[in-house]
Amino acid sequence: GASKVQNQTENTSESTDDTDETGQTKSEISLLHKLLNTRLVQAKADIEVLRKDPNSPLYSVKSFEALHLRDTLLKGVYDMGFNAPSKIQETALPTLLADPPCNMIAQSQSGTGKTAAFTLTMLSRVDTSLNYPQCLCLAPTYELAIQIGEVTRNMGKFMTDLQISMAVRQQRVTRNQPLRSHVIIGTPGTVMDWATKFKVFALNKIRVFVLDEADVMISQQGHQDQSIRLQRELSSECQMLLFSATYDADVMAFAERIIPRDPVVIKLRREEQSLDNIEQYYIECADQQGKFQALSNIYSAISIGQSMIFCATRKTASWLAEKMTADGHAVGLLSGELDIEMRAAIIKRFRDGKEKVLITTNVSARGIDVEQVTVVVNFDLPLTRDYQPDCETYLHRIGRTGRFGKKGLAINFVDGNRSLNTLRYIEKHFGRKINRLDADDLDAIE
Ligand code: ADP
After folding, report:
1. Residues 12, 15, 17, 22: is their CA dihedral positive or negative?
2. What pLDDT shows up at residue 193?
3. Which atom of ligand 1 lies nearest, measured to the CA of 151?
4. Per-residue model confidence as pLDDT tens digits over 374-395
5. Residue 111 Cα, ligand 1 centroid: separation in angstroms?
6. Would you say the CB of residue 110 lies under 6 angstroms from ligand 1?
7. N or C: which end of the chain has fewer CB within 10 A?
8. Pairing relation of β-strands 278-284 and 435-437?
9. Is the CB of 235 under 6 A from ligand 1?
10. Residue 87: CB within 6 Å of ligand 1?
11. How far, in Å, from the CA of 408 to the mean position of ligand 1?
12. How confident is the model at residue 278 (pLDDT cuts 50, 70, 90)?
């Protein structure tokens, strides 16, 4: 069925583009986030609103009732388990639903409710008595389009006449035979074909145009060009919306081309990661075996809720997973060769507490936010590709503990001068003491 997400992209060139230093593509990370965001990420940072016309103040809502949605749609929203708008929805929705329609560029980290916001906008503007496409949503990959399709179908399930078409590869249309569906969700290439080659819908009749995951979209030049070409054919009355998880000069330049007419710009900054609440230690070990011994001591000496262990290579990670499993620990192993769905499944199991320990390489750790992790172990310290201390990754790994005011614990293993130097470098970089710990005497941390 539609919920089966395949680990394929629309064409092969996509998966090779824009691979980050850990070998993951932006769209992979983005999809992983989507698969994992089964719950709302409660943002604490403030909303920043930039707009051309300061005389038309934005207002925000605290309830979905205040938006005066049609009954069937409101029912769909509640049926999804949404009680109140998320932070970004509070500010974005009144503007998104206002008349005359207002164009918008919105950025917030994934999981904060953007998809739900634009889905709601499309569904509240659609007229199901008119049997032609009125809303068009572009997503950068097949999988992301499918996810959006599912949300839209789910939210609109009480709108009995609603028809949605998925403009993704393998979906066939007949040339010159007009679509009777109300909403089209798809990837730029297929949407382009449907509009211009097969002529199954009219771009100038679209009333709401959404471009999602703009930061992933721009990492593929072809998509960027196609999106711009599609946008040019829209009518001037069409409401144009662009969403992105990140916000930098490239994204903004693209956003301003896609949404040229006076957009309201809404930004929700990501919470800063810090080492404030985290006690950091290091343990000197002779070698890999010594690290394992130290780890065993730690797990028997202190009671650990959930922990993550980072290894430099897949080989070390699976070696360690085997040894710990043999010692009776419930261990999850996350590594880079797994496809996105497998990774999401393993992270979900860990989140649900089915495993207490998650062993991972850095590659696969992107996109994980597990609130209940109290201990992070760097079995190997993070290094960049050219073997320099990787402070950013260190912060990213460690920063996941000690959240929400809870105290976190980070334990770093060093073996030899090289790794000790790495540790000193990291210590100096953050200006936070990393205390030495004796693996045979762990009283200091309990
Ligand atoms: P984004 O597009 O920013 O990644 P989503 O719209 O996919 O975020 O929302 C993330 C998760 O939170 C989804 O599981 C979604 O169902 C849920 N969600 C969205 N809005 C709300 C809300 N107002 N209340 C509760 N859950 C919500």
Report:
1. negative
2. 97
3. 16
4. 889 999 999 988 999 999 889 8
5. 6
6. yes
7. N
8. parallel
9. no
10. no
11. 27
12. confident
Which token pair is 38?
Answer: 């089964």
Looking at the CA of residue 147, tell me the nearest atom of ligand 1: 7
Q: How many helices (H) and strands (E) does the chain have?
A: 16, 15
Cβ–Cβ under 8 Å, residues 97 and 169:
no
Distance, in Å, from the CA atom of 205 to the CA atom of 223, rounded to the nearest integer, reads 22
Distance from the alpha carbon of residue 442 to the mean position of ligand 1, in angstroms? 42
Q: What is the DSSP letter of 203?
A: G
Can you tell me the ipTM of this complex?
0.99
User: Is residue 216 within 8 Å of 145, Cβ to Cβ?
Assistant: no
The pLDDT value given to residue 293: 94
Beta bridge partners of 333: 359
- Measured distance CA(237)–CA(186) in Å, rounded: 22
Q: Of the candidates 233, 243, 205, which has an alpha carbon nearest to the alpha carbon of residue 30?
A: 243
Which residues 6+ apart lie within 8 Å of 333 measured at CB?
317, 318, 321, 346, 358, 359, 360
Check whether 43 has a pLDDT greater than 90: no
Sign of CA dihedral 65, 71, 73, 77: positive
Query: Of the ranges 5-9, 133-137, 293-297, which one carries the lowest mean pLDDT score?
Result: 5-9
Atom number of ligand 1 nearest to Cα 34 = 4
Residue in 128, 130, 120, 127 with CA at minimum distance from that of residue 97: 120
Going by C-alpha positions, the residue among 386, 382, 392, 376 that lies closest to residue 362 is: 382
